[in-house]
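Typical record is below.
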Amino acid sequence: MKLQGKTALVTGSDSGIGQAIAITFAREGADVIVHYGHDEQGAKHTAQEIEQHGRRAEILQADLSEPRNAQTLFQQALDKLGKIDILVNNAGTGADAETSLDLSLDEFIRVVNIDMISAWALCQAAAKQMVERGGGVIINVTSVHEEIPSPGGAPYDAAKGGLRSISRTLALELAPQGVRVNNIAPGMIVTPMTADRVEDPQKLEESKQRIPMRRPGQPQEVANVALFLASDDASYVTGSSYFVDGGLTQNVGCT
């Protein structure tokens, strides 16, 4: 088992990518804090799967649109498990707008708070504890939109790009203390967040044509990369972004 004796906090682990990461970590020996914002039933399902692997699961709720809640969440996680070896900032949201001109200021702030500022607050809290303990791993789940702009996606793109930069800075600062920090940048993955596109045959086909592998990815394919980064297999890897996108970012600008 690659994570035997480790503990992890995975935000947004009530569904999709976060759920797959939490369960995969448990399968490899980790105890996991399951965080959710609104879907308590999804969090309970994740916890049940973790426990079926013989590992401990603790469920915590926090609304990360208020960044101070992120600080409270980390302390609660620490109180539950005693230590956090691995932090996965996976919780995220997008904006409901066709173009940037349709966005309200409140919506912009909400998205940036969840996708970047709360993630930063968790990174900082985790890093302080990891430095004290002599090491740890932080994985920030960003998006291909840390690299590729999207119509109506100004706050999402800005937050994901900002989180990428935060990760690189933290990787530089924390490497001497044994803390590794990396990003995973998923493309189109079959999750509740992409259901409107995946479940519409026309939209799905349009998306597939932009992806060189001609298919969307599955949450487990992202979780496999997270496992690599969390484990000693990636002991010399820090400050990197891993694109899990079927080649999408290589196809930008191609006709």
Remarks:
- The longest helix spans residues 105-133.
